[in-house]
Amino acid sequence: MYTRVLIKLSGEALKGDAEAGVDPAATRMLADQIKEIATLPVQTALVIGGGNIIRGRAIAGDEMDRVTADYMGMLATVINALAMQNSLEAIGVPTCVQTAIEMREIGEPFIRRRAVRHLEKGRVVIFAAGTGSPFFTTDTTAALRASEIGADAILKATKVDGIYTADPEKDPTARRYQQITYQEALQQQLKVMDATAFSLCMENRVPIIVFDFSRRGNLMKVICGDTSIATIVHD
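Now predict its structure.
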């Protein structure tokens, strides 16, 4: 169904049952699912949040400057990227970490043409350190990098099987959208991705597929075009 995708993972997915940090077992489980699609001719990139360690926007306030807090959050995404790289390479999946903040000892600086070349060679490219600038979320990073590398879609991996009219855990009458437009997502202020990310995807016509990554096999189904288990945001 797709030749190049970008998977957006939340940092919380790496912490498993722990309150915070990185759980190697949880990271290995995520890596196993990504390896499943390595058998397909699909080029894969990853953007991982840092919420399991620190979320810049959450700690910014009177005692913490927002810019400093955001840079701390970017560094948290680098930790997660290295953890995911370790788990993927442990099971034989070649990877490359590219960072928006230069850290040559642990990853390449982000260079679009080099990232595309890694993808063409079958490596999973993990984009870390956000956009390299404060005030941007990793959702926006995912939208930006997907647009830059010409991804066919962003696969937004969550704990629910799509976008609902209301919180399905609080409202039993909430129904799942099979598909929704970017404009509708913006107008309804859906919290699956932030407004900047939605706008970037809309401008560059990059579909967003929201699905439940916690269910084994769902990633493969989405890659193969099964839209019954997800919500598609497109134009």
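The longest strand covers residues 4-9.
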